[in-house]
Design a protein that fits this description.
The protein has ten helices and seven strands. The two termini are 46 Å apart. It is of the alpha+beta class and 285 residues long. Helix content is 50%, strand content 17%. Helix 2 packs across helix 3, helix 5 packs across helix 10 and helix 6 crosses helix 10.
Amino acid sequence: MPNSEPTTSRQAPGLRWLAIGAAGGLVAAAFGLLERSPGVAELPVGAVARVNETLISEAQFERAVEQVASAYGRELTADDRERILTQLVEEELLVQRGVDLGMTQSENTVRSAIVQSLIASITAEADAADPSDDELERFLKENAERYTYASALDVDAWIAEDEWVAQDFVNRLRNGATSPADDRLRDIPGLPSGPVPLERLRMFLGPAITAAAADMPEAASAVYARQGRWYVVRVNRHEESTLAELDAVRSQVMIDYRRSLADAKVRAYLDELERAADVVVAPAP
C-alpha cells in the first residue's frame, strides 16, 4: 500500500488493526475509508472489489457484514460497511503478498490455517446436519458395536474397608481363588446370584461400578473405590447383549453421525482433488 497521506481526513489503518481484523473479523473505530476507484464500473455483476486478478464477491462481503453485526450486536452504518470492505481489500493484499513470498509453502502456521479453513468450509454442512429419526436409527444399527451393552451380568462382589485387603484378594482371584479367606472381606448384602439386570445391579454396586463391570470380560476381576470403601467385583458371565434404544443414546449418535458425515465429505473432496492433480509419491523411506 502507498505510504503517502490519504486524501480523506480519516487516519489510515495500521497493521495492528489488520491483525485484529484478520483474527476476529472486527472493525476498528478509527480507520481510513476506501476510496472508490474510477474503474469500479468495470467490476462484473456480483463483485464488490477486485484486487489484482482476484474478485471479492458480494456474498463474501455480506458474510463479513453479518459476522461483524453479530459481534457488535447492532445494525451497521454505511461507514461500518465501508470499513469492512476496506478490510477485505487490504486482507487480500496481504494474502497475495504472502503467496508471492512463498509463505504458503514454507510457513507451517499459514499452511495449517489454510487446511483448517478448507476443512471447516467442507464440513460446515455436516456440522449443521439435522437427520431424521429414521436416519439416526439406520446409523445406530450400522454401527451397532458402538451402542451394544450387556443387559444382565452374573457377578460376585465383596466389600473391604482397606484397599490393600481388596487388592490382595483380587490377586488371589486371578490366581484361581474362588472365595475370600479374610474376614475383612464381606459379601454385599442381598446381591442376587446368577444374571442380574443392569438396572437392578446398580442398586448394589452403584452406577459407575456397574458400568465398568459391564465392560469387563468374563472371568475378570477388579477393585473399585466407592464411598470410602473398596469393592471387589468378579464377572462370571455376560448375558443378553442388546442394542441401546435411540432415545437413550440420541446425543451421542447425533455427534457420531455428524462426525462420520464430515469425514466422508472431506474424504470425497480429497479424492476429487487427487483425481484432478498430478501427484507422484516416492516409496516411504
